[in-house]
Amino acid sequence: MSCTAELRRYSLPAWERAVRAPFLREPVMGTLPSEMFKRYFLQDYVFAGELRRVNGLAAARATDIELARRRGEFLAVLLGAEDPLSRRAFDSLGVPRNRYQGVEALPVTRAFSDFRVSTGYGGSFEEISGAPCVTERVRLDRAIRLRKKGARPAVVMYREWMHVHDQAALGPFVDFVEGVVNAGAYGANERRRMDGIPGTTLDYEASSWDMDCGGGVDAANQAGAVLR
Question: By CB atoms within 10 Å of each CB, which of 3, 143, 151, 172 scores lowest?
């Protein structure tokens, strides 16, 4: 059973909370406030910076050069698409360069990033790959659902978000990390650690989207306190 299948089996309510969050239903109807989308892009910019750090740790943990190379190539493509999208969104939303380059992580973002980095320092290549099984599958699932519904938001950056996270762009990386996790040989201790990663990641992922939907710092503080 794949890590995603296990996650859906044991954590279906939390999974559905993440993939069906109003954050990406509202853009389709043209009702998402610009401040909400601005908060999303600012916090995602922080998270992407931490992702580069985690990728370096993953490369050091890879069992062979080919695995490290493939992960690096996939992430180069993804970040190469997401970074320009973020910058165009900042221009459209009137966010100056000094603000997004100096933005501070809200509590959920900081706690989530700390979890990813600590897993990178202390975990195996398979354990490090467990988190993106959730984070990227959630984004991919959302984009696919929107496409199948025929969604074509009027706002360009909403359409670009869908394109960057749809099957053609994100699918190969999701398939790769799920393949890494499913191919791992785990002893009892490793299996116990692996079992905890998807669920913990999903809690952070869902809380991140709740933060983006829920009104800024107060919602972020509440979610961050619950997760700590």
Answer: 172
Residue whose C-alpha is closest to residue 139's, from 227, 51, 66: 51
Contact 36, 220 (CB under 8 A): no
Tokens of 148: 């199948």
- The pLDDT tens digits for 9-33 are 666 777 777 777 766 666 665 677 7
Task: Give the closest residue to 138 by CA, choosing from 14, 1, 31.
Answer: 14
Structure confidence at residue 106 (pLDDT): 92
Query: pLDDT of 57-115, one tens digit each?
Result: 998 899 889 999 988 888 787 778 888 999 999 999 999 999 999 999 999 999 999 99
d(CA 169, CA 7): 23
The Cα–Cα gap between 208 and 112 comes to 8
Residue 223 buriedness (CB in 10 A; 0-12 / 13-18 / 19+)? buried
Distances from the Cα of 4 to the Cα of 12, 198, 211, angstroms: 10, 8, 23
140-174 pLDDT tens trace? 988 898 889 888 887 888 889 889 999 998 999 99
With both helix axes pointing from N to C terminus, report the angle between 65-93 and 167-183 in degrees, rounded to the nearest 10: 140
DSSP collapsed to 3 states, 133-177: HHHHHHHHHHHHHHHHCCCCCCCHHHHHHHHHCCHHHHHHHHHHH
What is the reported pTM? Answer: 0.83
